[in-house]
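input
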Amino acid sequence: MSKRAVLLALVLLLFATGAECAERHLNAGAGLRVPAERIIAKFESETGHSVRVEYGGMGQLLARYKATGSGDAFLSGSEEYVQEIARDGGVIAERPLVLHTAVMVVAKNKSDGIANFEDLARSNLRLGLGDPKAIALGRTGETMLDASGFGEELRQKVVVRATSIKQIFLYVLNGEVDAAVIGRSDAVNNPSLVMLPSPEGIPQNVSVIAALASSRHPEAAKQLVDFFSRKENIQLFLDQGFLPVAE
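output
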């Protein structure tokens, strides 16, 4: 092989290795998409590295991770999913970001006379919930119904359970359901929805980002995690309606 051919092969090898190192694969909860995309755009602009993101319900993403054992980072709407990965030694670094709060909303054009959960339970409105096996806010929604004291009555009004909080959000926006448990960030940014006061005792989901032991480039994975947890990037979540984690 000529010197020129050897040099070309080395250049191609270095390029391929660099390209591989430059891309991070992130699994992310669909309810975190808006601020996540803004942070990722900043990360790519500042570092020159690319991030390949797969959004979905947390149950779906966790099942896929367990099946493939691959990925660099995991952005979860609830810390319990990261804890499950960590129990098997799958997490090398993690950072709490914000609270991923569930709220009950009613479509504004259906909200006359609906001031609380009791009013909702006595109404003829159709209710949408997330699947508790698929998404963090689905589990919280079930807890919310029970905490209201009207769990049985409200469950009788459920006409759809979705595997993504964004699906539920679209159902209530499009009028396919009249009320739904969705993320607070979606609720506060949509004047066509009215939030009901939440009953006491609702657990708060802490959104967490974790670097995974499955990453072939763990330092690169940690770099992405650290970038997400910068104060100015957490502020992008807060600007979207998420609430801060108590210090």
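quick obs: The mean pLDDT is 90.
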